[in-house]
Amino acid sequence: MIYAGIDIGSITAKSALIKDNKLLGTHVMLSGYNPLNAGIKVFETLLKKSELSKKDITAIVSTGYGRASVNFADNAITEIICHGAGAHFMNPTIRGIIDVGGQDSKAILLDTNGQVENFAMNDKCAAGTGRFLEVMAKALEVDLDQLGEFSLKADSPSKISSICTVFAESEVISMISGQQKRENIIAGIHESAAARVAILATKIKIKDPIMMTGGVAKNKGMANALEGRLGFKFVKGNLPQENGAIGAAVLASRI
Amino acid sequence: MPKHKSDNTSDTKPVKIKSAKKMRDLMTTYYLDALSAKQNNKLVAWITSGGPVEPLVAMDIIPVYPENHGAMIGSSKMGEDLCIKAEDMGYSSDLCSYARTDISCSVVKGGPIGGLPEPDMLICCNNICGTVLKWYEVQARFYNVPLFILDTPICHTQYSPEIAKYVRAQIDEYIAFLENVTKRKFNYNKMVQVGKLAFEGQLLWQKVLDTTAHRPSPMSAFDAFFFLALIVTLRGTQIAVDFYKELIEEMEQRSKDGISAVKDEKYRLLWDNLPVWYQLKWLSGKFSEHNACLVADTYTSAWCGAIKYIDENNFLDSIAEAYTRIYLNIGVDQMADQVLDMIKFYDADGFVMHSNRSCKPYSFGQLDIMNIIKEKTNIPVLMIEADMVDPRNFSQSQIETRIDAFMEIIKQRNH
User: Fold this and answer.
1) Half-sphere exposure of residue B234: CA atoms within 13 angstroms, side-chain side
2) Helix (H) or strand (E) segment spanning residue A88
3) CA–CA gap between residue A60 and residue B4 (Å, rounded)
């Protein structure tokens, strides 16, 4: 039997298929304006890629901010529980998850069975989220995907003192006009965002081994900054961005 | 269709609490009396929610509560405009939203009842927070009326003999203040009666709250937020005593008949901090959707939490301690102990904490309390960030995700 998970995030939509407890495939695209259309498209594209049709799918779980809009799903489950299930599926030893997505960052603590024991999320503030990095990338005229590479070349990370995204952006702009090296500014941005996320991990007393999930996990500079803050090395996951969708598919198999 | 939201909503509406109508009538009468005080040659005193109201009642002065008014403003969703008005006047958006709405309402005469009746005096007790000091000073200047401040030092660990002496002396100063303003002698005989009624009222209010220990709970904290108004505003009167007796009867009958506040109650939660007044309906619906009932809270129980210090036969002496040792004026360890007792008594499956942007003394220390509760009970604890009156500090979709995830954790555990 085949199960599907659909994760509609604030920036990207992800889908995953699972068969016989094995991952069949995943797909990622931009969410766009309409979460239901994003859900349909990300699901259908993956079906096509996998040479399957809707009738092959036994159950679907939706997750993410747009979870309630996916009206063809059998159940809607929050991304917190889905990330837990996804991480446990990919690596059953995982006890901690740091998930940095577009508008949320969260720290999740799992028990040995992969069930969520506790979680903490950022408050009503974009500092320490993917959106924060996106704003900074724009100000620095760097492709979002390149932020990580740039920061790895920093020799002395700049110090960003503002927590607020808007104020931090003006701070970054004044650093640019102060001719600070772009690499150093970017490393400073990662440090600043990592400091915000690390607070969440401390709040729930996160435990090792930890997996970083969410789109931002692909940014090596951010991952390094977080590892430095937390004093833990992340267990490498191959599909951090798709982890929520994978978890949703796992939970679909339990309906 | 996915099994979310609408599918889980109960099809039949819960059985309404009959006493609610009477309560609304009593509150209307109370506010009409207060608004017509001048015509009836009565004096009006504004008093903080945790202040000793009994001497006012004994002196036939009508007590009016800006905080209760703030709750009404919040519930009628008029908080945002009044908060903005206060900010236009120069007050910071970080100032308590009760203070902001009260201050701006005095100027524009806005809100659901067109503003409170003007005060003849102000009684400010800082057992609930420090903001009230400056807030009441502002109002004393605005209305040009005398202000009495009752200073109750925080009892981090104990009620020391020094604190006892200091606060007790102020009770006499308070009475002297009232005699001075009213130009009348204090009525000690009436004080004895009022003291007994205040004591009885608090015992009855505790009994009302205790009825939710029954499974399923006949009422929820959302109901308690509403029924609280009488023990706050009419404490020390026969009206409050009679009403709560009837309410207890109704609750006991509901329990006997198996009538519950939440349809198919499966999970029982405890709430911390003030309500989010402008989102009561949404929050109550959200929890009901998960078959969860907020059975108790640390807020409404604050108006009976210090009963053990009251001696009804020696009321004036004992209220010094009772008013000093209220929930918001004690140490974090003692607050956590009270929460632990409530979790046990009400058999709660989870603890929801409202980190309230407005109420600093209530929200400060919540993280420590959260950690103590987790360590000692192992029940899930959720922290949501909001504000009691200012809706600009409430993000519905973020809070929805947190509540859903929290309930999913509780369900997993009880599976």
Assistant:
1) 22
2) helix A79-90
3) 13
Residues in chain B: 415
| Domains observed in chain B | 16-413 (3.40.50.11900)
Q: What is the number of CB-based contacts under 8 A between chain A and chain B?
A: 62
Do residue B401 and residue A73 have CB atoms under 8 angstroms apart? Answer: no
* Out of B393, B401, B409, closest to residue A116 by CB: B409
Q: How far apart are the first and last CA of chain B?
A: 23
Mean pLDDT of chain A: 93
Whole-complex ipTM: 0.85
- For residue A118, which residues of chain B lie inside 8 Å, CB to CB? 374, 380-381, 409
Distance from CA of B255 to the nearest CA of A (A): 33
Residue among B377, B380, B376, B381 at smallest CA distance from B412: B380
pLDDT bucket at B64, cuts 50 / 70 / 90: very high
Please say whether the beta carbons of B95 and B228 come within 8 A.
no
- Give the contacts of A141 (CB within 8 A, at least 6 positions apart): none
pLDDT digits (tens, 9 = 90+) for B309-357: 999 999 999 999 999 999 999 999 999 999 999 999 999 999 999 999 9
Q: Tell whether the torsion through CA atoms of B62, B68, B70 and B73 is positive or negative.
A: negative
* Triad B110, B113, B119: Cα angle to 5°: 85
Domains of chain A: 1-91+238-255 (3.30.420.40), 93-236 (3.30.420.40)
